[in-house]
Amino acid sequence: MVASMRERQEVRDRIADITGDTGTGSILGNLMKPSGRPAPANFSKLATAAKAANWAGDVDLCPDYRQVRNDLLAGSDQGGYLQSVLIQDTVEQALLDNTSLRSICTVVRTWLAQSLGVPTMNGALKEGSIVQIGQPAANQADPVVGRANAVMTAFGSGQLALSRAFQQDSPLAVPAAVYAVTSRVARIQNRTFTLGESSVQQAGFLYAAPVKVTTGSPGSIAADEILSLVGSIPSMYAKPGVASFMCTLNTYLVIRQLKNGLADYIFRSSGLDEWRWTINQHMPEIAAGSVPIAFGDFSKVTIVDFGPIMLQKLGEMRAERDEDLWQAIGHSACVLRDAGTHPIATLQMHA
């Protein structure tokens, strides 16, 4: 509700009593300027004054400064900065930076609870037939239609303690805290969606995809074996620009250093640079019996987010230390949409 002129004047008078500023009308005017204007130099005093005046939203502040005022009054009234950082952008960036799968997979967001059925079908490679006039068309077997069940799993960051003085003195403190706790959620999601976790019904794409190539050596990979992996899946999934390789950074560097008998590097000459290489820190390393490389169309891997990442700031648990606890919780699932056409295949090391 917008305050009356008399109520506004009472607020101005009480601000003047605390700040000692006889021109408080101009201070209040600065708050009511359009979005994007800088906050007044004595903004911390103004926040103290507003708190003392029990300023509970009855003055028509512009939205930006109203939010800043709420942030300041929610904690200590000693100082603070105008932080024009979009928290949601920070959350999304942390997810992308720390979850390799999100950069190339299909990500959907839903508000449905518990689970979501993701349809699958193996009819992608079926062909039609030539129809002759007066002759019945050849019968085609119906494709197998299925449903992959994406079961919601809760992922938590744990708690991160941050001093209130630091949060007030540095304009980067809150975005840094948000990024840190969201990154923790992103990394455990990436590990689970890659390798799986049976206790929460998450299979992991790596072991849901079939092994199509086994190396001849338990400790090394040949370029021919990698190219055989490319040819092991349908061409519609294997084309450059559609398909990607996925491995750890160490595995990628080993492949980049492959040489021929003349000690020439063959990464480019063999054509391996035509496909995108995605680094996933949770893929297995090269070792006997491991599965260090996956290849295929990763858009067939679907990550389902059941709502956005929830950020929580807990102010009471460590109040005696003048600290706030930050934590993030995400509810997500991951499924490989494969009903028999195998859009993704893997290379396994010889045991």
Written description of the protein model:
This protein is of the alpha+beta class and 351 residues long. Helices cover 31% and strands 21% of the residues. The chain contains eleven helices and 13 strands. The chain has helices at 5-19, 24-31, 43-52, 63-74, 87-98, 164-169, 173-195, 205-208, 223-230, 235-238, 249-256, and strands spanning 106-110, 115-121, 145-151, 153-156, 160-163, 211-214, 244-247, 276-279, 293-296, 301-306, 310-314, 323-336, 344-348. α1 (5-19) crosses α3 (43-52) and α5 (87-98) runs parallel beside α7 (173-195). The longest helix is centred in the middle third of the chain and has 23 residues, at 173-195. The protein starts with a helix and ends with a strand.
Task: Quickly list its features.
alpha+beta; six-stranded mixed β-sheet; five-stranded mixed β-sheet; globular; 11 helices
How is the secondary structure organized here?
Layout: H1 5-19, H2 24-31, H3 43-52, H4 63-74, H5 87-98, E1 106-110, E2 115-121, E3 145-151, E4 153-156, E5 160-163, H6 164-169, H7 173-195, H8 205-208, E6 211-214, H9 223-230, H10 235-238, E7 244-247, H11 249-256, E8 276-279, E9 293-296, E10 301-306, E11 310-314, E12 323-336, E13 344-348
Parallel strand pairs: 1-10, 6-13, 7-8
Antiparallel strand pairs: 2-3, 4-12, 5-12, 7-9, 9-13, 10-12, 11-12
Helix pairs in contact: 1-3, 5-7
